[in-house]
Amino acid sequence: MKSLDIGISCDLRSAFGNVTSGPEDRLEEYDSEHTVNSIAKVLEALGHRPRLLGGGRALVEAVLAHAPDLVFNIAEGVGSRSREAHVPAILEMLNIPFTHSDPLTLAVSLDKSMTKRLVAARGVPTPRDVVVKELVDVAKLQLAMPVIAKPLNEGSSMGIRKSSRITDASALTEHLTRLLNDYQQPVLVEEFCTGPEFTVGILGTGAHARVIGVMEIRPTTGSLDTFVYSLEVKRNYLQEVCYDVPPKRAPALLRRVEEVALNAYRALDCRDVARVDLRIGPGDEPMFLEINPLPGLDPVKSDLVILTRGLGMSYGDLIGGIVESARARYQL
């Protein structure tokens, strides 16, 4: 197998310095040096020559000076709802191969409402929702309580707290006020699904895309029907949740979960890898919630890594699988 010069595009949390303005989770989606170094070690062990490109202007300068054979892209971007498309758009323009989805898919997928509309058009079930751009009379939203409210264009559970499940108009008004003020963007208000929550890992592209596993995220305390997989829960995951791989659920239900997830992945033209979040809604129907085509790759605590570890799949196998999917697309 040919050894490749692989650049790693990323936006490191440490690069932002001591940012004090904005909500306390404002840097939640950005990567640590530990994650990037772990990816580099795997690539080196696979016989490749990894090097750090960074993101933004640093990446542009690096690839213009010396274009790599392939970019392993985990750059989240900065500054707009299309920020995840910034780096792949540059690479596409310069004809440099890269892993993960293309600019269109990455831009669309960060907008939760746009994503839901596209997958729904392909027959994928998803809860009813309303996008709120300014504070309104919540009685006019015409959604059934309970609902969940979250920033429209964020990932990594930013803005989602245990209190984000809302059962009355007064609490929703208060929550919308906070989110609109803290995140300076519209808010997605969505009918809350009370059944089990799942995340699905998918590798590959197009007809070659396949589900590699399903994981149920189950609260260790409290009621399932009020459970929110919030930022607080994710930060305290060892105490707050159990990850069941495979889930202890009926095979027919899990097959339907896989089908819904894979249909959403293909509807959005995802490439190489993604993680799809679903929850069981009325009539025991798996409902699409969100997709992350740039899933976290922290070697210990990212959901996709926890899922694959539960399957007996090593971190090296996961990173290698992403690279091999991209290589096959570009015939590298």
Percent range for β-strand residues:
15-25%
Number of domains: 3
Please state the average pLDDT score. 94
Order of helices and strands: EHEHEHHHEEEHEEEHHEHEEHH
The assigned structural class equals: alpha+beta
Major sheet details: 5 strands, antiparallel
Describe the structure.
This protein is an alpha+beta fold and 332 residues long. 34% of the residues lie in helices and 20% in strands. The chain has eleven helices and twelve strands. It has helices at residues 33-45, 56-65, 86-93, 103-110, 112-121, 169-183, 231-235, 237-240, 251-267, 303-310, 315-330, and strands at residues 5-9, 49-54, 70-73, 129-132, 147-151, 165-166, 187-191, 197-203, 210-219, 241-244, 273-280, 286-292.
What's this entry about, in short?
This protein is of the alpha+beta class and 332 residues long. It has eleven helices and twelve strands.
Record the SSE blueprint:
Elements: E1 5-9, H1 33-45, E2 49-54, H2 56-65, E3 70-73, H3 86-93, H4 103-110, H5 112-121, E4 129-132, E5 147-151, E6 165-166, H6 169-183, E7 187-191, E8 197-203, E9 210-219, H7 231-235, H8 237-240, E10 241-244, H9 251-267, E11 273-280, E12 286-292, H10 303-310, H11 315-330
Parallel strand pairs: 1-2, 1-3
Antiparallel strand pairs: 4-7, 5-6, 5-7, 8-9, 8-11, 9-10, 11-12
Descriptive labels:
12 strands; D-amino Acid Aminotransferase, Chain A, domain 1; 332 residues; Rossmann fold; alpha+beta; 3 domains
